[in-house]
Design goal:
6-stranded mixed beta sheet, homodimer, 3 helices, globular, 133 residues, Nuclear Transport Factor 2, Chain: A, alpha+beta
Chain lengths: 133, 133
């Protein structure tokens, strides 16, 4: 698997854990070596693994949390790190996310996520990932 | 200078170039080796150095562009990369930014910027950087 594919795979795993309400997978995905942070849409920033995972537990544990689909993910490799920019579709609206990862052996672990509103839409011609529960 | 200080210095240089409408400094700040991207508040994502710098030329060249101040910047080192989360104050409103950097010798070069709305406010007790023209 190429570096870019592995990075996209980690990004896909994040949305699979998110959409699948899989807190165990979400917990394993976030780095427990590098410092982490998270900015949910409109929220203040969250710093530190415990607080970040607490926020995901609350989101994933909320039965009325709408489904999310990831579209048009673009990987950027920067040495031992990397990030993915992608659209998130939530109830027919699009958000734009930056997901930052760090290498952990052959895997990539998440160190940061920021998502916010966008006027853009995913390119229709690019392959799209449909995350299904 | 510690790694964290150097990363914060690069982040400060970014806001200094932004507030000072200094396109030359902004151009030097962005990596010309690693792939780059940028998500201005509400915009669709911009991919590639030329397009990213074109967007900054338009923003910096816009005389009615309001001033920006950076507050409460927090550095995160992740191997050969790093990112800074900070508040941006624009006309009394706060945005939340993620700025991603990659090491280039002893300096840090920018590879990604995303800024968007937040309900948060910078911590009043942390030192704040006031960018002055």
């Amino acid at each position: 698997m190429s570096d870019r594919d592995a990075l996209l795979f980690a990004n896909e795993a994040f949305y699979r854990a998110f959409a699948g309400r899989d807190l165990k997978a979400m917990t394993e995905l976030w780095s427990n070596e590098a410092p982490v942070a998270c900015v949910h849409p409109g929220w203040p920033p969250i710093y530190g693994r415990d607080e970040v995972l607490k926020s995901w537990a609350a989101i994933i544990g909320n039965a009325s949390q709408p489904q999310v689909q990831c579209h048009d993910a673009r990987p950027f490799i920067t040495g031992s790190g990397g990030f993915v920019i992608c659209y998130e579709e939530v109830q027919g609206q699009y958000l734009l996310a930056t997901n930052v990862f760090v290498r952990d052996g052959s895997a990539w672990r998440m160190v940061h996520h920021q998502s916010g509103p966008t006027s853009g839409k995913p390119a229709p011609t690019r392959p799209q990932l449909r995350v299904v529960n």
